[in-house]
Amino acid sequence: MKNVIITGGAGFIGSNLVESILKKNLAKKIYVIDNYSSGSKKNHIKNRIIQYIKNDTKNIFEIRQLKKVKIDFIFHLAEFSRIVQSFEYFDNCWDSNIQGTKKIIEFALHKKAKLIYSASSSKFGNENNQYLSPYAWTKAKNVELIKCYKEWYGLNYVICYFYNVYGPRQIKNHYMSAVIGIFENQYLNNEPLTVVSPGNQKRDFTHVYDIVGIY
């Protein structure tokens, strides 16, 4: 049985991951770190082995509950995760994806824990152009940084790429909502779906249960 940290564990994908780990009895203790910028206490799962900690990832070394605990795995999901919004909220994107993730990488190395990093498929868009948005650039650079930490310091890691995840607990009415969440909210309110012109774009979509292995 392992001690696990899930950053962003009160969010959409993170809360489903918590549920999956619980169902499979894979952890002795789950520490959830979330600043609730897009996560919600409604996504909390009541279980004696889960501890929810409200904080930013850049402060992970200062979290007292983690100082003397052996950590085996860190699932890092707590990053700014929208393309269009990253232009308007650039500082938030930078703070979370660059400063926060660097601290998570260093903490994983410090604890000799395996880091599971949620990378983004956006870096593969438009001929692998990572310069399309602040979001795409920061995610691409974090992948490079993680690989460098492996070469420089022996970081143990796995990188996962997500393709437009949807499903239970997805954000429906929030500035960070993704397209399927927006469509669901509009459908439930009998509103027309805001299909972007010309309306013939194609995307791959992945159910969250396939991402977290909840079956």
Short description:
The chain has 215 residues and is α/β, with parallel strands linked by helices. The protein has one domain (2-170, 208-212): Rossmann fold (3-Layer(aba) Sandwich), CATH 3.40.50.
Structure description:
The protein is α/β, with parallel strands linked by helices and 215 residues long. The protein has one domain: NAD(P)-binding Rossmann-like Domain (Rossmann fold), CATH 3.40.50. Helix content is 36%, strand content 19%. The chain has seven helices and eight strands; from the N terminus they run βαβββααβααββαβα. The protein has helices at 12-23, 85-88, 90-111, 125-128, 134-153, 179-188, 208-212, and strands at residues 2-7, 27-34, 50-54, 73-76, 114-120, 157-162, 165-166, 206-207. The strands form two sheets. It has a six-stranded parallel β-sheet with strand order 3-2-1-4-5-6, sandwiched between helices. Helix 3 (90-111) packs parallel to helix 5 (134-153). The mean pLDDT is 90.
